[in-house]
Design goal:
Elements: H1 5-14, H2 28-40
GO molecular function, one term: succinate-CoA ligase (ADP-forming) activity
Keywords: Ligase
Pfam families: ATP-grasp_2
Length: 41
């Protein structure tokens, strides 16, 4: 079976497997925003 990473994460979360938080960024500004969100959470 071939699945994308996000699909694997969704599947594992259904079975209560802890998944680290993350985000997607296309620009340095978005990367900074994702990092700040992860630090705050």
């Amino acid at each position: 079976m071939k699945i994308h990473e996000y699909q694997g994460k969704d599947l594992l979360q259904q079975f209560k497997v802890p998944i680290p938080a993350g985000g997607v960024a296309d620009t340095p500004e978005e990367a900074r925003r994702v990092a700040e969100t992860l630090e705050a959470g």
